[in-house]
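Our preliminary data section would be incomplete without showing what the modeling component actually yields. Below, a chain of 351 amino acids is followed by its predicted structure, encoded as tokens that our downstream tools consume directly.
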Amino acid sequence: MKVLITGVGGPTPRSIARTLKLLSTFKNYEIIGTDINKYAIGLYQGDLFEHCYLVPKATDTNYWKVIKDIILKHKIDVAIVQPELEVLEWSRMSVIEELPCKILLPDHDLVSALVDKATMTEHLESHYLVPKSVRVDPNNIDVKNIENKLGYPFWIRSTSGSSGLGSLKVENINALRNWITINPDVTEFLASEFLPGRNLACKLLYFEGNLIRSAVGERVNYIMSKVAPSGITGNTSFGRLINDESVFEVSKDALELLMDKVGAKKHGFFTVDLKEDEKGKPKLTEINVRMVAFNSCFAVGGINFPEDILRLLDGDSTYDKTFKLFEFDEELIFLRDVDSLPIIMKENELF
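Predicted structure:
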């Protein structure tokens, strides 16, 4: 099977490629990679990608000509598109014309609602599924509104982007003003009530109207956490593979509520991020329209989402489409770094 993976400079696309190459059994995969940055390490990793290409940005007028030429040249069967802006562009194009290869892609209206974290939060706020939040205009900070609705401390982040962009626990208004000053590229922030509990992730795989697979994990520590004031870089170094049906239920309810609100079909792969409040209730902080970097940890733990997606798109008659909330062995943890397979072990085996 010939697979196109985009954004191979990022750890998530490389993790997907590594998962398919080393942990999959369905077919042999010839993987073609693309990225917009000539310094992207993935473009030069011949052990993961048979061919790689430097391509224009998804917003470039020449983007689709280049992508279609690559797909035609290599007779691509399936695309796995990872950067959010590319997911947004592929979903937009799917409304206009038939896409040049198979892909598991949510509806454009749903992608648009999820890429903007503030829009997603506003859709769900009246259902008490998300933390109390306020949009923050860097050029016109409504201090009274923030203090009246949230108090201190509160959490702030960019309304778009990944890897904890613009994230910080804010203790006072001076800290907020200073943080906005040193993040001039962020055009809008989202301030939310501070949630002190566990940092959780729920994977949800939908296909043609049905929920097929789900699994839950916990993020504990992050790679290079010392370089970020918030301690969050978006790349988990230590986490747990857990069995928590309540986290699954909240994630499913929120995502399907959003699907209903925008009139989207239940189709696509999603990573729901949640944090627990002081009472242990999980609340959504964002919904990613893609996999995230520690997807290989789930594969080593027993559920290989990239291969599940390829089997579904390939029409594998042996694939059981009956819904399964994956159950891991008790006390499983993972240790990972950016460019290697994770280690899965029991937590009591730590030194």
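Residues 18 and 266 are 28 Å apart (CA to CA). Residues 245-262 form the longest helix (18 residues). Preliminary results of this kind motivate Aim 1 of the renewal.
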